[in-house]
Amino acid sequence: MCRLKFDLSILAKHIPFLLEGAWLTLQACTLAVIGSLVLGLAVGAMRTSASPLLNRLAAVYVDIFRNIPFIVQLFFFYFGLPEIGIYIDAFTTGVVALSVAGGAFTSDVIRSGILAIDPGIIEAAQVSGLRKSTIFRKIILPIALRASVRPLGSVFINLILTSSILSTITLNELTGSAKIVASNTFRPFEVYFVLLVAYAALTYAVSIIIGMLHRYLNRNQSEGAV
Amino acid sequence: MRYGDFTPFDIVLLLQGLGVSLALFVSTTLIGLVIGTIWAVIRFYRVPVLTQIVTFVAELLKNSPVLVQLFLVFFGLPAFFKINVTPTEAAVITLSGNSAAFIYVIAVSAIESVGKDQLEAARVFGLTRWQILRRVIAPQAAAFAIGPLTGLLVNQLQVTSLISVIGVMDLTKVGNILNLRTLKPFIVWTAVGALYYLTAKLVAYAGGRFEKRLRAHTAWRGL
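The joint structure predicted for all components is written out below.
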């Protein structure tokens, strides 16, 4: 063994550059979480609607985007969109692809949250003469979302991990900038090890926040209730 | 014929890529199953130091992007330990480790699903530790685990697409090459996506069939 030393001090001067990448990751993930939540709500509502057509459409969407690798979807958008005359930058493409893929997983979570609601509650609301949209917004959604904070959290943590794939379409987010640092310093082991730990710490922090959010939103629920 | 047109040989190329993807998927799943199960057994017996190490490694592997793990193995290991790692080796190491971490979680909950009273009863009958593991826990845990395992495998199949980034000639890499040559992204990526989709459905179907067989002893047979 000539020189097996694990030296992290080389990375010190590259930290600002890595933080820039982390900032981009954060932006992409935040936008993608919002996008997939909106899409997931819409598709989740379609999947639980009474209309067989909407139901079928939503099921096909979820089936396709859950069973095709994200990188293939990403390349489809990245190379395909310019073909039909839509020219958007890598960042927007990445956010769109993440939202569409995340939307499929989110809608599944929201769907099971909606299906878990006691039908009696909805019947009571119908008997009270509330409009369909009011029932959905004021009764179904709050209950379903509150119950699915934890599974939604794991979907979003997955989204953060998946965002590393955006580095393959020339987007210099955290993984992309680490790649550049690794090839500049010739210390790939240290760089990627730190990156691994950074992602693990990030997702760990997110999971703690989600646990707190879950407890806060369900603070009035008795043990064993939804 | 122009250079950028599709040729019949492209289909062979796609199928070859699918073969590489499938071979890596199957081999890393098998390795991951063995490692993950061993980790779960280590935890089941609460082996002192090893349990903590296993838990920590599994958490780290589950909570970091596969792409970064892949780079660490492919670029990091050779630079640090002065060894040669081919793309295929790096892919096998990374995907096996990643599968093992997720299979470990499933295996732990599967082992815990077997009731304590059964273990006590088995001990009273004088079965050895190995016999309890092999004859009492394993069959029930397997039936319990097969459902989540199928879901995991469908996911892991998609994770294999990442190895194209380090240059393994899998289905995604073939798609990349065809895409750059023909400049017809819609056709190429739709075909690649369809092949992945069909394979995922096949895995899910096989898992469903297998689950039915493992659960046959609990199924209602009629009087």
